[in-house]
Give the backbone structure.
Amino acid sequence: MNIEMIGFDADDTLWHTEIHYLKAQEDFKGLLSPWATPERIDELLHANILDNLPRYGYGIKAFVLSLIEAAIHISDGKIGANRIEEILSIGKRMLAAEIILRPHVRDTLQTLKSAYPMMIITKGDLLDQTTKVKRANIGEFFSSVEVVNEKSPEAYTRIFEKHRIHPAHFLMVGNTLRSDIQPVLALGGAAVHIPADSTWFHEMVPGFDTAQNGFYELEHMGQLPALINKISDVI
Ligand SMILES: [Mg+2]
């Protein structure tokens, strides 16, 4: 494979993200405990988030709107302004949380930088994601950052056209089969799955065929340069 561009997912590939969502949901369940059990709150909140995805998209701001809406439903309209304010604070804490890179990320980017152009392809909120790249101090490694609404084959195709990338020369690295791996393989690219400690159920792909051409799986980012050396024609 002649790799002309390596794409990296951001959330839970470059830096930890899901951990902040799980913590926020725990705080939310505490706030709503006068009105429902943790299980019921989980169930209603998840239904609300999925229902809102087409309207609000991904990211923390969308998540907070769903928290507020779920809180109104769960409390049957009795949630007070104080608790709404606490929900807003949960979101602000998430936005301001320290960015912790996943293991081996910086070293690996440093190793690959001289040999391969690299870009970030991420879902979520434009302001939050571009700010995070700056705050994580890893912007120098990437030629561009693409923030998309949904990581569909169409979205990848638009990115390939914009940057004149041939899919057969594109390698994507990410933690979710649904967003980072499946669409890229479908377009004829290669993809490296590096699972995170926890993954949102929405991103899982039951029955995914791991024998597909161009599919690779690693335990951590530190193993990426060796894999690339193995599969690449151009070193
Ligand atoms: Mg991810």
